[in-house]
Each structure stands twice: as C-alpha cells, then as structure tokens.
Write a structure and sequence with these properties.
It contains 3 helices and no strands. The chain is mostly helical. Pfam families: SHOCT.
Length: about 80
C-alpha cells in the first residue's frame, strides 16, 4: 500500500531489512559449514590419533623393535 511519499508501509526500509537478513543468513550458513568441516578434521587427530600412536608404540615394543629407553622416551612424548 502506498503512502504520501510513494513508499510502502515500511517507509522504504523493507529492502534494506531484507538485505540485512540475507547477510545474516549467509554468515550463519558459513559458520555452520566451517564448524562441520573443522569437527570432521579434528576428531581423528586429537585423542584418537594419540591412542593409535600409543598402540603402535606398544606393539613395536612388544616385538622387540624398541629398547626400554626408546620406548619410555617416545611414550613420554606421546602423552605430553
């Protein structure tokens, strides 16, 4: 509905508000995608990666591939 100035009921702010809402929506979508991508990459490298490395270290020590000193040193590095 047109008023005296030729604008709609919102006084010309309707397009501005739509642009602001679109920008906010795009920022939210980008944020969610970034969190999903980061979540997928970090899940395998934090505790899971260290647990796997420690398991491999234990297996190598059990096979006799590492001396006691080497095993203790590498274990200390993995746990830090």
């Amino acid at each position: 509905m047109m008023n005296y100035y030729g604008y709609n009921m919102m006084g010309g702010w309707g397009i501005f508000m739509m642009i602001i809402l679109l920008v906010i929506l795009i920022v939210i979508i980008v944020y969610v995608v970034m969190k999903l991508v980061q979540g997928g990459n970090n899940a395998g490298t934090t505790s899971n990666g260290r647990d796997e490395a420690l398991e491999i270290l234990n297996q190598r020590y059990a096979k006799g591939e590492l001396s006691d000193e080497e095993y203790q040193q590498k274990k200390k590095i993995l746990k830090s």
